[in-house]
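We store amino acids, tokens; thus:
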Amino acid sequence: MGIAGFFGALIGGYIATLIPGTYLTALFGLVILLGAVRMFTARPPVAGKEPVDDVVAFLLWKIPLGILSGIIGIGGGVILIPILVFVMHFRMHAAVGTSTALMIFTALGETIAYIINGWGAVGLPAYSLGYVTLLQWALLAGTSIIMAQAGVRAAHRLPARQLKLVLIAVMVTMGLKMTGVFSLLGLPL
């Protein structure tokens, strides 16, 4: 799944450079909202059902999810976790862990695509490699590493149902923010 996600994200990163930024922002929010709705309305996974262990299924899911992740510029966890839980029968904690590991490959593919496709673009901030701004990357990566460790500890303390509800709440908040609903309503979020 990691290799498929890498190549899908390369393709998606290229496609993203052809789409106006406002559309990408709205698409990002919409995808996250749809994932949240799916997670909220889906029936709980069947207990005792073995997780899917089929290379073809992994490829058929991860290539298009990698492309979508590359287009909207995310690691892909919010769209992969519902697939892993409800389609491939992973337990919630295993889905979150697997998704996190797979994001490494997707993020690498996206990063390469955004560097290559943004190389020489006009109007980028100083210290940019294509569309990747190194200062912002360093600040976000540094704080993310620390906070990810705290998040993992918190996730392991929560039962799967509560973890799922927290994930849904974060997805809805981000989706509404990115689609402009909060701005439309004049909310300072």
Observations:
- The beta strands are 128-129, 132-133.
- The mean pLDDT is 87.
- Residues 92-118 form the longest helix (27 residues).
- The helical segments are 2-16, 21-41, 55-72, 77-87, 92-118, 134-157, 160-178, 181-184.
